[in-house]
Amino acid sequence: MMLIQRLLPIVALTFGIAFAAQAADTTVRVISDRTPSHLEPLFEYYRTLTGVEIESAFVDKGLIARLQSRPTEADLIITKTADILEEAKQQRLLRPFDSSTIAAELPARFRDADDAYITLSYRPRVIFASKERVEPDSIETYADLTDPEWRGRICIRSGYHNYNLSLLSQMAEDQGLPAARAFIMGLHANLARRPKGNDRAQVRAIYEGECDLSLGNSYYMPIMLANPEQRAWGKATYLIFPNQESGGSYIMRGGAALTTANRNVPAATQLLEFLVSNAGQEFIVNTTFEYPVRDDVEMLDSLRALGNRQEGIEGGRFKANFIPLDAIAAHRDAIVTILDEVDFDSDR
Ligand SMILES: [Fe+2]
């Protein structure tokens, strides 16, 4: 030990180049499909805090394909759709993390059973209802949308969009495939128009009187309210968090994981730990309008106001249904088959 210490300066001189390369290892390479402006301030804060430089690459789509073709290009993956982390895990593209901090601070429902990935934030897929035409508390569950009372009054984006496939797969796991089938058929029967457009386009259709109800991700409400051109759409509606008396609302998760790259596992693990810390979570929640994985994170007023017309919802906090991601993935093909049978996206 002593000898090595005395030899170090000489070794450093001789192998100056190698040491310079090691100094460069105080960087962590991150690949993400999240919006760059959501993560860059967080990375900058992390650099001032730790001196660790984050090299980031952003891909809009095809993160899983990129990981397959270049599995060690990054040390850490941050994604808005944790479902792909389950896929990556099954393809052995992830390295389980080893962190007593995460084990102590992150509840099990936010960790993969084998610690291959974690949930960083989540957002429920909720009901947007017309303030003018839908009485508060007249709808309590997703299944209530199939009631004949709402015939011709519901708008939704394509049934095949990831958000809806995830929702329907969660329902299949939670309530069984026959219940999911009955929901798809009943919802289809109640549609006001052919499924088209994105989540916000459905809220706009409520504002314009074309329908009274839609399904969408919760964060679109604060996003619309912050946008002068869309504020009226948001203001015409209120959120209903479904299934609060049963298992909880279905959610979409954002997540993170280590790749199989082995150049700087400790530093990548530290960044992962930071992402679930109070400070890391505040950055994520305040830029994405999603929900934190810690209860001690201060939420913005725009989030705290969500669901304020709904009995039992306080400060925007709702009951979520944390169905394991592998269970959700297993139902996807069966859901697509039912959508095909019903011809869900066709003209009515
Ligand atoms: Fe979205």
TrEMBL record:
<protein>
    <recommendedName>
        <fullName>Iron(III) transport system substrate-binding protein</fullName>
    </recommendedName>
</protein>
<dbReference type="GO" id="GO:0030288">
    <property type="term" value="C:outer membrane-bounded periplasmic space"/>
</dbReference>
<keyword id="KW-0408">Iron</keyword>
<feature type="binding site">
    <location>
        <position position="219"/>
    </location>
    <ligand>
        <name>Fe cation</name>
    </ligand>
</feature>
<dbReference type="Pfam" id="PF13343">
    <property type="entry name" value="SBP_bac_6"/>
</dbReference>
<feature type="signal peptide">
    <location>
        <begin position="1"/>
        <end position="23"/>
    </location>
</feature>
<comment type="similarity">
    <text>Belongs to the bacterial solute-binding protein 1 family.</text>
</comment>
<keyword id="KW-0479">Metal-binding</keyword>
<dbReference type="GO" id="GO:0046872">
    <property type="term" value="F:metal ion binding"/>
</dbReference>
<dbReference type="InterPro" id="IPR026045">
    <property type="entry name" value="Ferric-bd"/>
</dbReference>
<feature type="binding site">
    <location>
        <position position="220"/>
    </location>
    <ligand>
        <name>Fe cation</name>
    </ligand>
</feature>
<keyword id="KW-0732">Signal</keyword>
